[in-house]
Amino acid sequence: MKPDPKEEHKKHTFDTYCKRILKNESSDYHRRLNVLMKHEIPLSELPQEILQQLAVWDEYFKDTYRFEAKGFEIFVADGLLAEALKTLPQDRLEIVLLYYFLGMSDPEIAAHLNLVRRTVAYRRTSSLQELKKYMEGKADE
Fold this sequence. Notes:
- The protein is mainly alpha-helical.
- The chain is built from six helices and two strands.
- It has helices at 5-39, 48-54, 79-86, 90-101, 106-113, 117-140; strands at residues 65-69, 72-76.
- Helix 3 (79-86) crosses helix 6 (117-140).
């Protein structure tokens, strides 16, 4: 059985249409690439002086102070705050770090340190007062 001439014509027309679309898209793509190549320069071709001007250096842990509380590492970027924290005894320092930097509640800290919740709350508030006095004294200097 021979295919219908009209169907054959439709197939050829559609085939030609698809080829034309692909050819036009290809030429558009190459044209856009050429325009981009005229306006953009690869980083590998830039002189070293220009690269230095464009460079951004990460400062994630630059000038940070490291504290440890029950296996957690805590980094403090403020020098005055780090100085003030260093003046606290270790048990109070851990409570302050766990509460203010790790977001633990008093009952969680109490369970973690095997203390009574009220003891944790008292040490935290008294430590906060000590830190406040220390930092106000340093700010006046």
